[in-house]
Design brief:
This protein is mainly α. The protein is 66% helix and 0% strand. The N terminus and C terminus are likely disordered.
């Protein structure tokens, strides 16, 4: 376990025995004076079987009543499972779904998959309209280009939302809660949306160089504003603002927007870097109640 703010590392990559004993006895936070130690220990225990085994021994030494209670609960569960009828095995539609479900438990919310599907469908519709317009001498700017900067926002809005994730309260109470989990779920969104946009751009002749930086800028901007007003509101507001200020006027005037011209890319890069700094500086905001909307 690496040495952190609370000094939990012992140089071996594992939780020190003395700290593990105090953790088993429930005195680790009181002795260290900070909850950071508890969080660091719990995150490490998630991935270290050796330390979990050592923790079981520490609990048996420091709190035999807890060990007895756990044995009683385990015996009761075994008896109930033995008496319960067996459900027929479910057919898995993907190989390795067991690993996928573990991955999805942390990186995908129930509302994320439908929103990703909706995003891909919108991109396909934009491709169809672009191809139809191209066959008619291309009178309008590419819809793929106009929508690409805000395409991920519908799914990003579901990455950290109390109303869209029925397990939100459990997730918030987990050791991995906060910006780390938001970034993992956002990366899962981008891993689907960006390749779809790349394929769509190839079909209609729009280079990723024109929309990739704006796409990243809007995604990071949603994360930054989400720390203040909630991620769902931030993503929705940015998407509506882009549609009103850029998409609508571009279709009315039949001219590509200046904001997506090659000359504007350095500005998008600077904006992305600046907003990313804000997200890092305020990284703890996603664990506060104000941002859990």
């Amino acid at each position: 376990m690496s040495r952190g703010k609370g000094g939990t590392g012992d140089g071996t990559g594992h939780v020190p025995a003395e700290l593990l004993d105090r953790y088993a006895a429930g005195t680790a936070d009181a002795d260290a004076g900070t909850a950071d130690v508890l969080w660091a220990v719990e995150v490490h225990l998630e991935s270290c079987a050796a330390c979990r085994d050592r923790l079981a021994g520490a609990v048996a030494r420091r709190s035999p009543q807890t060990s007895l209670l756990l044995e009683q609960v385990r015996d009761g569960l075994v008896a109930e499972v033995t008496r319960s009828p067996r459900m027929p095995p479910r057919r898995r539609w993907l190989p390795g779904t067991g690993r996928l479900s573990g991955w999805a438990a942390w990186r995908v919310t129930p509302a994320l998959l439908p929103r990703l599907g909706m995003t891909v469908l919108v991109v396909l519709v934009a491709v169809g309209l672009d191809l139809a317009d191209g066959a008619d001498a291309g009178r309008y700017p590419s819809l793929v280009l106009l929508l690409a900067p805000v395409a991920p926002l519908a799914a990003v809005a579901a990455a950290w939302s109390r109303g869209l994730d029925p397990a939100h309260e459990l997730v918030v109470a987990s050791p991995r809660a906060g910006l780390d989990l938001v970034l993992r779920r956002t990366a899962a969104v981008l891993a689907v949306v960006i390749p779809a946009l790349g394929a769509a751009g190839w079909l209609v002749g729009v280079s990723p160089a024109r929309w990739l930086l704006p796409c990243l800028a809007f995604t990071v901007g949603a994360l930054a504003l989400g720390e203040v007003v909630g991620l769902h509101r931030a993503a929705s507001g940015l998407a509506l603002g882009w549609a009103a200020v850029v998409v609508g006027p571009s279709l009315v005037t039949a001219r590509p927007p200046v904001l997506l011209a090659a000359a504007s890319l350095p500005g998008w890069a600077a904006a992305t870097a600046a907003v990313a700094v804000v997200v890092v500086v305020r990284r703890r905001a996603y664990t506060e109640l104000e941002s859990l909307r």
